[in-house]
Design goal:
Layout (H helix, E strand, L loop, with lengths): L20 E2 L2 E6 L5 E2 L4 E2 L6 E5 L17 E4 L7 E2 L9 E8 L15 E9 L13
Parallel strand pairs: 2-9
Antiparallel strand pairs: 1-4, 3-7, 5-6, 5-8, 6-7, 8-9
Length: 138
């Protein structure tokens, strides 16, 4: 007897397994303007879901400096697919992660470590680094 070590041993359908969450998304925002992210895609998204912009998803110390509302994007749709920043962002140009939290009874989404699912990439167009010193000679 081989037990359950071979694929052929699993011949009876026991049901369906749904994974709730986002699929990879890539969006672009411009520093100095509101950041609106529309059309996020995923499975069974809801208005309880939250997205946080971080350097690394799930890392407690990965907040993006100068991103309004500490990187939290506000829900603007009941399906959890559209979000917008509360004010214009002033973060440095670069590549950041869109990090997802289920919310509701699954998580309070109150700490950066709650946002451990990578929902994709956010490209911020703008100066980087923010403080640059140059001398012009005429």
């Amino acid at each position: 007897s081989t037990g359950c070590s071979l694929l052929e041993s699993f011949a009876v359908d026991a049901g369906r397994f749904d994974v709730i969450g986002p699929v990879f998304n890539e969006r672009t925002c411009v520093s100095g303007q509101l950041c609106a992210i529309d059309g996020l895609q995923g499975h069974h998204l809801s208005d309880a879901n939250r997205v946080l912009v971080l350097h690394t998803c799930g890392a407690g110390d990965a907040a993006v400096p100068r991103f309004t509302s500490l990187g939290h994007l506000q829900q603007v749709s009941g399906s959890g697919t559209s979000m917008v920043s509360a004010a214009p962002i002033t973060a440095a140009g670069g590549r950041y992660r869109l990090c997802w939290c289920a919310g509701g009874s699954l998580s309070r989404c109150s700490e950066a470590s709650d946002f451990n699912a990578d929902a994709g990439q956010l490209i911020v167009l703008g100066a980087s680094p923010l403080r640059q010193s140059r001398t012009c000679v005429s």
